[in-house]
Design brief:
single chain; alpha/beta; Rossmann fold; four-stranded parallel sheet
Length: 339
């Protein structure tokens, strides 16, 4: 952040990453207690009109300090099942924005305090789908499978793609995000493919600016079930095959279930994801009726203007105005209402 020119002030509190018995069991409560007056001093000097937070343990000192100074806080949570810190602090903030209506039901906040906005995502407008497909070498009539495992446990994805690669490229184009550790093996696997289909497989260690083009170009997305992945895919109306990360209290599986129940996604458990299940999932691309139905269900769940909906809440808090009606926020997030 400092390198980007954004001022940064650190608090004594740290993220709770240690689960073992250690000195941090004593130090973490002390750090938390120290951070509340530290945060209060910063806020008293800066006097922000409002605070936006994504919650979590490290946000607790800011929320407590802001409440004591009567500074309104808008908190956003992207998980269907809110974490303990969010549940503990939700009643201390002016408004909570969430990705799923189920989260509001879990938090059981008073009416007019919890709003379904969806997940704010990167800008996807203005990208030419044909140009994006050309960028990845997909000809007219070709079908593109995008596979990426995120930052956690990507090896399972890489193994499944490697074992299925020859059969996949017979029918589809494949863009595969491998991570640094898997990139060399993916390149080696590409060189073993017949020359006639070699260009159908394009591995990348990471896709940064080009990730938006890959999402727009894709006909089917295979990935984890992080809230941003699901939000971007549904904003574009793309069918998904989700392989939830099996840890982190089952958040990703809970995130994926509404899409699965709506018909926008198919779920494969992490331990069952291999070459055979990947090939079976990719067969969605061979069934136009099933693919179109999944795409329509995905599009219906999309919240492409989620960031604008969250911004509406923050501005209302900063200006001490009444929050918009919950139904209006949903329509704003869907892109049905102008700014």
């Amino acid at each position: 952040m400092p390198a980007a020119g954004i001022p940064l002030r650190r608090l004594a509190v740290r993220s709770l990453r240690s689960s073992d018995r250690s000195v941090h069991l004593v130090l973490d409560p002390a750090r938390l207690a120290m951070s509340v007056p530290q945060a209060a001093a910063i806020l008293a000097r800066q006097r922000p009109a409002a605070i936006f937070t994504t919650g979590g343990y490290v946000a607790i000192p800011i929320i407590l300090a802001a409440r004591s100074l009567r500074i309104p806080v808008v908190m956003w949570d992207g998980n269907v099942i809110p974490g303990r810190s969010v549940r503990a602090t939700a009643r201390l903030v002016a408004a909570v924005a969430v990705s799923s209506a189920q989260t509001c039901a879990t938090l059981a906040l008073p009416e007019g305090r919890c709003f379904e906005t969806g997940t704010p995502i990167r800008e996807l407008e203005g990208i030419d789908p044909l140009a994006a497909r050309e960028r990845f070498g997909v000809p007219a009539g070709g079908r593109l499978l995008l596979v990426f495992g995120g930052s956690q446990a990507v090896r399972r994805f890489n193994t499944a793609v490697a074992d299925a690669l020859g059969r996949l490229v017979e029918r589809f184009h494949v863009v595969h995000v491998t991570g640094d550790a898997g990139y060399a093996a993916a390149l080696a696997g590409r060189e073993l493919l017949p020359a006639a289909v070699r260009d159908r497989y394009r591995p990348y260690p990471f896709l940064r600016a080009e990730m938006t083009q890959a999402l727009v170009a894709a006909d089917l997305i295979v990935g984890r079930a992080g809230s941003s992945t699901l939000a971007e895919a549904t904003a574009l109306g793309r069918p998904l095959v989700v392989v939830p990360y099996p840890h982190a209290a089952g958040h990703q599986r809970a995130n994926a279930l509404p899409l699965v129940e709506a018909g926008a996604a198919r779920l494969i458990e992490d331990e069952a994801f291999n070459a055979d299940s990947l090939l079976a999932a990719a067969a969605i691309l061979d069934d136009p009726a099933a693919h179109n139905a999944m795409a329509a269900a995905s599009r219906a769940l999309g919240r492409p203007a989620a960031a604008a909906a969250v911004a509406d809440l923050v501005l209302a808090a900063a200006e001490h105005r009444a929050f918009p009606a919950a139904a209006a926020i949903v329509r704003r997030a869907r892109g049905e209402l102008p700014g």
